[in-house]
Amino acid sequence: MSYQSEERTPDPSWKYDVFLSFQGPDTRRGFISRLYQALKISGIHAFVDDDVLRSPEGMSYTMSQAIEASRVSVVVFSENYAASRWCLDEVTKIVECGRSIGQAVIPVFYNVDPADIQNQRGPYYGEDFQRHQERSSDERVQAWRAALTEAANLPGFNITGKSF
């Protein structure tokens, strides 16, 4: 059996094939850079944020638009993902787009236990949410918790950083 390479015609309603959501210091220089290069070589147009787009107030309008304009979102859950309110806002928007526009959402569990994310427990997710509870509104924290639980319950991939 042979496989033929097909020329893809991009769907004009999508600006990006893939949106990558990740906590920069945990994965940017290793896993994400390799994943991005592999996608690029395969002809897949991926959006990877630039730290310049980030603001302390939360997710920018530009980032929100990039999520909405992506066919697929890959959420790379790592040890410090939940420490970032920015990342929590991203995953909340991604889950919303999965429900409202049918965007595919693929979780990647990078050196973390999916159950810790689903339940916001453990040394990373549990402690991070204790801090968020003290600094953020209950409504916002509940939205983050719901988004994490929903995303972590989706079929995904478990990866250990030792191979990267």
TrEMBL record:
The TIR domain, residue ranges: 14-152
Catalytic activity, as annotated: NAD(+) + H2O = ADP-D-ribose + nicotinamide + H(+)
InterPro entries, alphabetized: TIR_dom, Toll_tir_struct_dom_sf
The protein, known as: ADP-ribosyl cyclase/cyclic ADP-ribose hydrolase
Pfam family membership, one: TIR
EC number: 3.2.2.6
Keywords per UniProt: Hydrolase, NAD
Domain of life: Eukaryota
Keyword hit for Transport: no
Species of provenance: Stylosanthes scabra
